Amino acid sequence: MTGRQAGRPVVADKRKAMGLAGDSAPAAELVDLRDYRPKERLAVLVVEGDEVDFRAMERALDRIVEPGVVTTRAKTEAEAADLLERYPSDIAFIDQRLGDMSGIELVRRAGGRMTRTPLVLVTGQAERSLEDAVLRAGA
Questions:
Q1: Is the pTM of this model over 0.90?
Q2: Domains annotated on the chain, with CATH
Q3: Among residues 132, 136, 101, 104, which one has the least CA distance to residue 120?
């Protein structure tokens, strides 16, 4: 949509405006597109100890986000906690299997205390109990 309708600012589905919504995507919040300014770069923290998995995540992010992603990597809970506290990210992807603690434990510690960054737990496990634990932890 363009222009104004009946004196009101035009609004559109933000996900569609950002190119994130397909035909089957759920309804998203409506925003005034005059206020929408895309970021030049998306700052992403990836907490992943495995080099191969980190590179796969980095490639996936580069393919789906335009115009680009600035990716910072933390290999341990301690590195992640430091980065979450000191450097703002737009989003953080946290592997469930970390060497020094579980991803759920990091989400529990980080959520609310360290950061306002949205936290996403990444795992290859498909267990309902894990989903419930992650949601209770604050992801």
A1: no
A2: 10-35 (no CATH), 42-137 (3.40.50.2300)
A3: 104
